[in-house]
């Protein structure tokens, strides 16, 4: 008989990463509600608790990759590098949990295994893997978009005699690569961060590349005291900047077309952006993600850089044989990624030409019969993104409707926030919201604040339930599709934005590509109109 741990809660929040910590603070300290966070990990931090792989760091710059809602919180923390490493971000989130006294309302080691809506009581009953149950009026998921590891089903994995790890479930004690033959499968943002670091200690590193990828140097560096002072003294300006750009970054996309400049000027602008480094490369021209011909100028530039950097012509050909527009998949940034292939202890295997056939007790075999002896296999193979973390909680709404059933053909919701048939369930940075196409803390703050205002409105007006109307979902799904198809983003057959990395997953472009500014305006307008498109009932 499962024990009932807690009744009488106003809200249950699932997850203690960036979203869950701020949501708890808003509900408890702004609205005075009783709220509990259930967190699967043994510590707070979400993504930054789990992703401890070598080289893990944020691709957004540190001064923009943090909470901006509190000047005191912002000014009380000093970042050390342009791109903060995983350990520093985890320290930051622990600092936030302590400063806001959040830990007393967070239950760790509590992975949610099911959530069921009880219509007569208008309560959500939530069960954790250890059998404890909790009940509350509001259920808010703060589970992240990239938290369900994708470990591909390659025959023979169970027989492997060495060690294997997924980057998103990295052992806390670390992995010792010294003297070892290591294989990394995957060359997305994660693989591109991990490969140069693993190459430094591994005896030999074999990179198994299925899809060649673009990458731009991060040009990471320690922050100068001057820049640290600038950040400390400019909380409001930095916050306003991140809230005024479509991607939530503290820099804007340049308002010029690729074709406004001569080919020589374009080359100079790309070179300057390459030297400056980072995701800002994508902001060099406004039409890079809108127009194939424009995009080709950027992709040609990067491919030429790869050929300049990588000395072995066959390896360079393989790395530069990229089949999709630049930034149509999430563009990685790196520290010495392409340079790493000049090391004598690193080799590249093209597993598009010769797919991985099996994992054997001693390594990996490709379809051409070649065996690669390995001591350690690193799966940098990504995640069942956006829907995976929500669906694995077995959420059941009104009349036994499961979220998995409602989303059989792909995710459908209103504003990325609510699903018809699931009253009082809110999904922070759910599919259909800008989330992964933006600087996440900015998207998270907007969602958390919208949800908090919505719950405050409900309580002020004696409203017991809020639920997306089916016709609002239809319209929103159409808006999400239109926004995506106005860009090159859906033109990549193997992108996780489309669910294409998971066998059997419906091919639906999941995030909202209309930009954070437009999205914020839409959400604000809907709230001002009395939560238009939602059914509110007493
Ligand atoms: O995962 P991915 P990721 N055999 O899905 C390959 C965020 N992030 O963990 O492209 C062989 O992008 C797969 O190949 P293909 C960021 O949003 C943020 O790297 O499917 N290969 C691909 O190369 C990012 O986009 C930061 O053909 C297989 C790779 O594995 C997201 O996380 C840092 C395979 C997976 O790439 C996910 O990135 C790092 C198979 N069976 C990541 N299955 C920050 O800055 C998959 N692959 C915060």
Q: If you had to describe this structure to a student in words, what would you say it looks like?
A:
The protein is α/β, with parallel strands linked by helices. The chain has 2 domains: 3-44 and 102-148 and 384-537, FAD/NAD(P)-binding domain; 157-379, no CATH class. 32% of the residues lie in helices and 17% in strands. The chain has 16 helices and 20 strands. It has helices at 18-30, 47-50, 71-75, 86-99, 189-201, 225-233, 235-244, 263-276, 292-309, 313-320, 337-340, 388-391, 403-406, 440-460, 470-485, 516-528, and strands at residues 4-14, 35-38, 106-107, 112-118, 123-128, 133-141, 163-166, 181-185, 204-209, 216-217, 333-334, 346-350, 356-360, 363-366, 371-373, 376-379, 395-396, 425-427, 465-468, 534-537. The strands form 5 sheets. Strands 1, 2, 3, 4, 5, 6, 17 and 18 form an 8-stranded mixed beta sheet that branches. The chain has a 5-stranded parallel beta sheet with strand order 7-16-8-9-12, with helices on one face. Strands 13-14-15 form a 3-stranded antiparallel beta sheet, with no helix packed on it. Strand 8 (181-185), helix 5 and strand 9 form a beta-alpha-beta unit. The longest helix is centred in the last third of the chain and has 21 residues, at 440-460. It is globular, with a radius of gyration of 23 Å. It starts with a strand and ends with a strand. Bound molecules: 3-acetylpyridine adenine dinucleotide.
Give the topology:
Layout: E1 4-14, H1 18-30, E2 35-38, H2 47-50, H3 71-75, H4 86-99, E3 106-107, E4 112-118, E5 123-128, E6 133-141, E7 163-166, E8 181-185, H5 189-201, E9 204-209, E10 216-217, H6 225-233, H7 235-244, H8 263-276, H9 292-309, H10 313-320, E11 333-334, H11 337-340, E12 346-350, E13 356-360, E14 363-366, E15 371-373, E16 376-379, H12 388-391, E17 395-396, H13 403-406, E18 425-427, H14 440-460, E19 465-468, H15 470-485, H16 516-528, E20 534-537
Parallel strand pairs: 1-2, 1-6, 2-3, 4-17, 6-18, 7-16, 8-9, 8-16, 9-12, 10-11
Antiparallel strand pairs: 4-5, 5-6, 13-14, 14-15, 19-20
3-acetylpyridine adenine dinucleotide is lined by residues 58-59, 146, 152, 185-191, 193, 208, 210-211, 330, 351, 356, 380-383, 436, 494, 496, 501.
């Amino acid at each position: 008989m499962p024990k009932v741990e807690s009744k009488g809660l106003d809200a249950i929040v699932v997850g203690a990463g960036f979203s869950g910590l701020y949501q708890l603070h808003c509900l408890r300290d702004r609205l005075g509600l009783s709220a509990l966070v259930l967190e699967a990990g043994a510590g707070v931090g979400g993504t930054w608790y789990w992703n401890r792989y070598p080289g893990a760091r944020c691709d957004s710059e540190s001064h923009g990759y943090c909470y901006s809602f509190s000047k005191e919180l912002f000014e009380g923390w000093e970042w050390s590098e342009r791109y903060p490493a995983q350990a520093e971000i985890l320290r930051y989130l622990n600092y936030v949990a302590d400063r806001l006294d959040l830990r007393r309302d967070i239950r760790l080691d509590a992975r949610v295994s099911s959530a069921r809506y009880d219509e007569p009581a208008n309560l959500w009953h939530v069960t954790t893997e250890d059998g404890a149950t909790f009940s509350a009026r509001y259920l808010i998921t703060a589970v992240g978009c990239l938290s369900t590891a994708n470990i591909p089903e390659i025959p023979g994995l169970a027989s492997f005699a060495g060690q294997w790890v997924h980057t998103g479930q990295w052992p806390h004690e670390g992995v010792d690569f010294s003297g070892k033959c290591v294989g990394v499968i995957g060359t997305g943002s994660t693989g591109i961060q991990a490969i140069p670091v693993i190459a430094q200690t591994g005896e030999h590193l074999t990179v198994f590349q299925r899809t060649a990828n673009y990458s731009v140097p991060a040009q990471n560096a320690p922050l100068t005291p001057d820049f640290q002072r600038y950040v400390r003294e400019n909380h409001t300006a930095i916050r306003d900047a991140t809230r005024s750009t479509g991607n939530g970054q503290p820099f804007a996309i340049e308002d010029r077309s690729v074709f406004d400049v001569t080919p020589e000027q374009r080359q100079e602008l790309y070179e300057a952006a390459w030297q400056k480094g980072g995701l800002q490369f994508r902001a060099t021209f406004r039409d890079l993600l809108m127009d194939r011909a424009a995009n080709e100028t950027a992709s040609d530039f990067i491919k030429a850089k790869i050929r300049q950097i990588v000395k072995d012509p066959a390896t360079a050909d393989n790395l530069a044989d990229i089949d999709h527009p630049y930034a149509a998949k999430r563009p990685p940034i790196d520290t010495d990624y392409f340079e790493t292939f000049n090391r004598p202890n690193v080799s590249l295997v093209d597993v598009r030409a010769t797919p991985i056939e099996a994992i054997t007790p001693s390594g990996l075999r490709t379809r051409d019969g070649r065996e690669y002896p390995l001591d350690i296999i690193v799966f940098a193979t990504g995640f069942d993104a956006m829907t995976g973390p929500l669906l694995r909680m077995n959420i059941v709404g009104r009349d036994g409707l499961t979220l998995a059933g409602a989303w059989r053909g792909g995710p459908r919701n209103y504003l990325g926030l609510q699903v018809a048939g699931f009253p009082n369930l809110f999904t922070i940075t759910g599919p259909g919201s800008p989330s992964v196409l933006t600087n996440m803390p900015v998207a998270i703050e907007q969602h958390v604040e919208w949800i908090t205002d919505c719950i405050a409105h409900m309580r002020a007006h004696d409203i017991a339930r809020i639920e997306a109307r089916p016709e609002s979902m239809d319209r929103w799904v159409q808006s999400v599709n239109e926004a995506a198809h106005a860009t090159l983003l859906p033109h990549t057959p193997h992108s996780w934005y489309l669910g294409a990395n998971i066998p059997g997953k419906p091919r639906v472009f999941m995030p909202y590509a209309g930009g954070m500014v437009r999205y914020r305006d839409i959400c604000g307008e809907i709230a001002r109109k009395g939560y238009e498109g939602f059914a509110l009932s007493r």
